[in-house]
Amino acid sequence: MDPIVATMVSVMAAATPLLLAATGELVAEKAGVLNLGVEGMMLVGAVSGFAVTLTTGSAALGILAAASAGALLALLFGLLTLGLMANQVATGLALTIFGIGVSSLMGAGFVGTPVERLPRLAIPGLSDLPVLGPLLFG
């Protein structure tokens, strides 16, 4: 693979979670909610998914655990800010700090432990396109 294409593939892979989080935050902003706790939600979801995948050996359970952990923190944020009318800025920052601490505590035992990667999903025909094939489909 061409080094430029390889770099672009790496950038796309690294940017995807950030783009998904930014899209979710954009929707929340459009609804009038300032959620500064997105980073904490992502961290707790990531370490939960990693821990469940490593202990069970099931990537599907890990993805479910990651989504559930992030959703639980989002529910907590919603209950505090919309239900109890807490300050959105203070609650979001507290949730980020909480997420950093909890993920550091939960993930300390897993540092340096490798886990099996998800298999690549190659789409026949589209994966063979020059430059765009490896960048978008494989």
User: Which overall shape is indicated by the principal axes computed on the Cα atoms?
Assistant: globular
Distance between the termini: 12 Å
Rounded radius of gyration (Å): 18 Å
Number of helices: 5
Q: How much strand content do the residues show?
A: under 5%
Q: Main sheet?
A: none
**Strand-and-helix sequence, N→C?**
HHHHH
Average pLDDT metric: 90
Helix content: over 70%
Show unreliable segments: none
Structural class: mainly alpha
Please give the number of β-strands: 0
Total discrete domains: 2
Highlighted features:
138 residues; 5 helices; 0% strand
Q: Please, could you describe this protein's structure?
A:
This protein has 138 residues and is mostly helical. It folds into 2 domains: 32 residues; 77 residues, no CATH class.
How does the SSE layout of this entry go?
Layout (H helix, E strand, L loop, with lengths): L2 H28 L7 H19 L2 H25 L4 H20 L24 H6 L1
Helix pairs in contact: 2-3, 2-4, 3-4
Question: Care to give the gist of this entry?
Answer:
With 138 residues, the protein is mainly α. It is 71% helix and 0% strand.
